[in-house]
Write a structure and sequence with these properties.
248 residues, alpha/beta, Rossmann fold, 2 domains, five-stranded parallel sheet, two-stranded antiparallel sheet, 54% helix
Length: 248
């Protein structure tokens, strides 16, 4: 029964993701694979109970399997708890000199919902500090005619932000590059806010710390609720990858 519930839940969520964001939804396929695996496990257990399949695994294999499962669960809990802690609102810095708005995917020449949330958060700072300089950072994907930076800059100007207060960094293709390339535009002693969605704050700040960007402070924009579970899963795998690569 647990397997069937998991299959149904993951299948429905995968369908919702596809309806909301199509194949652009991060890790939408993960939920589909998990649904299929849960269904396969249910069928396998049913066949075993009816003794249609008779498999008795050796003790060492069963112990090794469950040990691995619990180690993975522990790692997931540790990483996701750390991500969640950084999601909650903290005291946000004042008197910043620069804001870096990290890019994410765009819908043609329009910001996606997640990107719009980041930009709207930046606008909140601009409204109370008109002298702040905003760096919009993000390159051009293979499916897009415009860079993320261009789309972001256009959105900000449409909202009344002066073009003279916007700098575009349109080469970055990852969060790490967002930070590296943007900081080349910033004086060493400037106070910098890094704006991104809440689920992404921990990784962005871990990358900044590893790069020695001591003046960076994470600023959490809201996260789209329907995409939050799949974004959390993606963060887990990307954090593992970047830890292995020595980036965090």
């Amino acid at each position: 029964m647990i397997e069937l519930c998991l299959m149904a839940g993951c299948g429905i969520y995968a369908a919702l993701l596809f309806l909301v964001a199509g194949t652009r939804a991060p890790f939408w396929w993960f939920w589909l694979v998990l649904a299929l695996a849960s269904g396969g496990l249910y069928v396998f257990n049913q066949l075993r109970e009816r003794e249609i399949i008779r498999i008795k695994l050796p003790l060492w294999l069963r112990v090794g399997f469950w040990t691995t499962v619990w180690l993975v669960i522990g790692l997931v809990v540790l990483i996701e708890t750390t991500v969640v802690v950084h999601m909650f609102a903290k005291e946000e810095p004042e008197n910043l000199d620069y804001l870096i708005v990290l890019g994410t995917y765009v819908d043609g020449d329009e910001p996606s919902v997640s990107l719009k949330q980041r930009l709207d958060k930046a606008i909140e700072y601009i409204e109370i500090n008109e002298d702040i300089i905003v760096i919009v950072s993000g390159g051009k994907g293979s499916e897009n005619q415009s860079s993320e930076a261009y789309v972001m800059a256009t959105y900000l100007m449409d909202q009344g932000v002066a073009a003279s207060h916007i700098l575009m960094e349109d080469k970055a293709t990852s969060t790490r590059e967002n930070l590296v390339f943007s900081y080349k535009m910033i004086p060493d002693d400037a106070a910098v806010g890094v704006v991104t969605n809440s689920f992404h704050v921990y990784r962005a700040m871990a990358l900044a710390d590893k790069l020695g960007l001591d003046t960076a402070t994470g600023i959490a924009a809201p996260s789209e609720k329907i995409l939050l579970p799949t974004n959390m899963v993606r963060e887990f795998f990307v954090i593992i990858k970047e830890k292995i690569m020595g980036y965090i």
